[in-house]
User: Which sequence fits this backbone?
């Protein structure tokens, strides 16, 4: 896969910029390297700045970034395009938003989850809301919501801003990002461009893993701000790339995304009506996968030519919300959202004889949703508040597959799906209530909280249609029941005079009609993938702490655990990550910094091989492991930060429990069970910010 590899860009070239006056440590503006993820900023809400340098190696996609948050894991299938998992829940159970927009992948085998189209440094803020403890972010928030956001540029006078970064590392890793904006108090324009590339990485034993990738993206926006309370923005985005996958017989050779969005916001309209928000957007995904572009192909009598699958997907959406203050103690949000999805496919089993681009696209599924939601915050006193919300969603889904098809990802072969042409409607309800209290004591500020939430999730495309999904009793999974999660969330935030801070969040969840993907159903032919409804129980916690124990010194740590049970079958719930802990030590005097990170992961023996979710199934138990990483940084001026590090310092050979199984690929060593993680990885990053 040498087409991906490129020599390390001269990241040190930034040091050759014109010399600047040395700044005192107090005047430095660029942040230190982050070695443990952000803690909870509010009950069940975690916020982070993805532009800050971090250990391990700065992330190249959304899933890679989220795995640094306690409670998150990633299902790896190569070097790119992993599926994020929060508290053991993957896929559509985790709502992913890009500036408030829904974006869904096209691949029936999850080559392109929503986070595959995210370059973290192109965004200004990442917000995670855990559990079914909000209804404002869209339908089906069983596990929680992740929002990647770009902040609105604000100019008090005419001017321009620029920030950028260059990253280089082992295995030909090479990233570039530029973010430029210009404007005045009434208008602004902003453009963000990214490019990320890597060759195949090596595991700790020196084996090449089929994992090379190249991704690029371009975002642009123009905004109108006639006064401090009015905002109108038109935005667009385009991205593409290719990625090699170690877990399957095909690679992704096209990840084309096109986006157009319009947002409006008006604040301080009256003492009663505080804000109006409106948004419309269009997202189009055109994805191509094949078995010859990024790997060797040898014709056989059974397969005389290479095969190609080309799904595409349109997502159109809109949202309207009003924030009101009925009294000085009540804030009320009411709103409406909707989305429409259409998925199509074209495929060829011999690209040389019948090019896929000459074939018509055939639709296999359509989805539409309309939702009404309301959230209320009631201040009982200066220190006590109650939050609550209700949501109703109306879904329509149509199986557009033909009764007799030619096979492929969306079809059922010559037999045809029994649900071909069928339409289904579902009305779903979600809601939550939460109590929070602020307590001031001599030994710190506490915010304990407890909440009860209920969320209902409509089955997605990957559970109903893709990869020939069947039910236990028929050759179609189109009648799969919606998931219903009732969850208790509780925890506490603590802060003591900026010297010591900690957080704990726990949950207990009962899921009725949990949607299980099962490959070992009795009476079904080998290779059949069945979508089943079961009842499940999950519980777990995340805990973080940060201690500024001396001037310029910080000690941080986190611990995360989740346990799941398949109550219907009396087995462990599949695809549960093991106990994980992190411990970091950092010295930072605002001119130089040095830090270390130990990550320890326990063994996972509670498995149910052959069962799981749309992103992966259990394979086998996984032994525990520990890795060690080092990092350092230097600030030659307040506008430049040079950071560097080494991950997996001792070159440990290991695999994460949720990693996919390895496929046999010519020229590569097949792993015994799971895809191994990267071995020792060196990296260096240069950040510049000009205002």
Assistant:
């Amino acid at each position: 896969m040498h087409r991906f590899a490129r020599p390390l860009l001269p990241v040190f070239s930034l040091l050759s910029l014109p010399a600047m006056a040395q700044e005192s440590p107090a005047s430095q503006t660029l942040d230190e390297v982050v070695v443990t993820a952000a803690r909870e900023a509010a009950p069940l809400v975690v916020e982070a700045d993805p532009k800050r340098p971090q250990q391990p190696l700065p992330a190249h996609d959304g899933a890679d970034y989220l795995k640094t948050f306690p409670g998150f894991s990633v299902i790896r299938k190569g070097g790119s395009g992993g599926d994020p998992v929060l508290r053991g829940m993957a896929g559509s159970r985790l709502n992913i938003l890009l500036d408030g927009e829904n974006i869904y992948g096209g691949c029936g085998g999850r080559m392109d989850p929503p986070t595959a189209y995210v370059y973290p440094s192109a965004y200004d803020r990442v917000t995670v809301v855990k559990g079914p403890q909000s209804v404002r972010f869209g339908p089906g928030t069983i596990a929680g919501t992740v929002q990647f956001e770009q902040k609105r540029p604000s100019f008090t006078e005419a001017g321009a801003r620029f920030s950028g970064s260059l990253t280089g590392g082992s295995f030909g890793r090479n990233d570039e990002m530029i973010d430029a904006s210009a404007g005045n108090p009434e208008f602004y324009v902003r453009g963000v461009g990214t490019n990320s590339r890597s060759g195949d990485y090596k595991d700790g034993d020196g084996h090449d893993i089929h994992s090379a990738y190249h991704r690029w993206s371009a975002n642009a926006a123009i905004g109108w701000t006639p006064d401090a309370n009015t905002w109108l923005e038109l935005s667009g985005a385009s991205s593409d790339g290719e990625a090699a996958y170690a877990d399957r017989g095909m690679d992704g050779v096209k990840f084309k995304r096109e986006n157009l969005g319009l947002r409006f916001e008006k604040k301080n309209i009256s003492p009663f009506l505080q804000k109006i928000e409106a948004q419309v957007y269009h997202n189009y995904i055109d994805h191509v996968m094949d078995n010859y572009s990024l790997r060797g192909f040898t014709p056989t009598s059974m397969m005389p030519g290479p095969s190609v699958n080309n799904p595409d997907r349109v997502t159109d959406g809109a949202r309207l919300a009003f924030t009101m203050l009925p009294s000085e103690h009540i804030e009320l949000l009411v709103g409406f959202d909707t989305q429409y999805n259409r998925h199509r496919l074209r495929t060829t089993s011999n690209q040389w004889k019948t090019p896929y681009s000459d074939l018509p696209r055939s639709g296999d599924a359509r989805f539409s949703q309309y939702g009404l939601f309301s959230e209320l915050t009631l201040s009982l006193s200066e220190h006590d508040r109650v939050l609550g919300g209700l949501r109703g969603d109306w879904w329509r889904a149509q199986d557009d597959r033909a009764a007799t098809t030619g096979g492929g990802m969306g079809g059922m072969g010559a037999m045809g799906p029994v649900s071909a042409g069928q339409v289904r409607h579902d009305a779903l309800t979600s809601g939550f209530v939460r109590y929070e209290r602020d307590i001031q004591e001599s030994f710190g500020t506490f915010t304990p909280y407890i909440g009860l939430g209920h969320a209902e999730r409509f089955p997605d495309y990957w559970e109903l249609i893709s990869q020939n999904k069947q039910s236990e009793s028929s050759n179609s999974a189109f009648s799969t029941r919606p998931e219903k999660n009732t969850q208790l969330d509780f925890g506490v935030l603590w802060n003591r005079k900026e010297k010591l801070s900690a957080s704990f969040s726990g949950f207990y969840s009962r899921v009725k009609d949990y949607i299980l993907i099962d490959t070992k159903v009795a009476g079904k032919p080998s290779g059949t993938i069945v979508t089943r409804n079961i009842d499940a129980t999950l519980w777990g916690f995340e805990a973080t702490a940060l201690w500024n124990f001396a001037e310029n010194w910080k000690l941080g740590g986190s611990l995360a655990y989740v346990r799941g049970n398949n109550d219907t079958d009396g087995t462990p719930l599949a695809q549960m990550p093991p106990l994980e802990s992190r411990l970091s030590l950092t010295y930072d005097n605002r001119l130089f910094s040095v830090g270390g990170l130990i990550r320890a992961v326990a063994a996972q023996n509670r498995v149910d091989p052959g069962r799981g979710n749309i992103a992966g199934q259990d394979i086998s138990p996984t032994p525990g492991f520990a890795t060690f990483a080092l990092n350092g940084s230097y600030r030659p001026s307040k506008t430049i930060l040079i950071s560097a590090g080494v991950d997996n310092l001792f070159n440990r050979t290991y695999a994460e429990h949720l990693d996919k199984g390895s496929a046999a690929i010519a020229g590569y060593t097949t792993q015994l069970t799971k895809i191994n993680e990267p071995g020792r990885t060196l990296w260096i990053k240069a950040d510049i910010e000009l205002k």
In short: Residues 1-28, 405-414 have pLDDT under 50 and may be disordered.
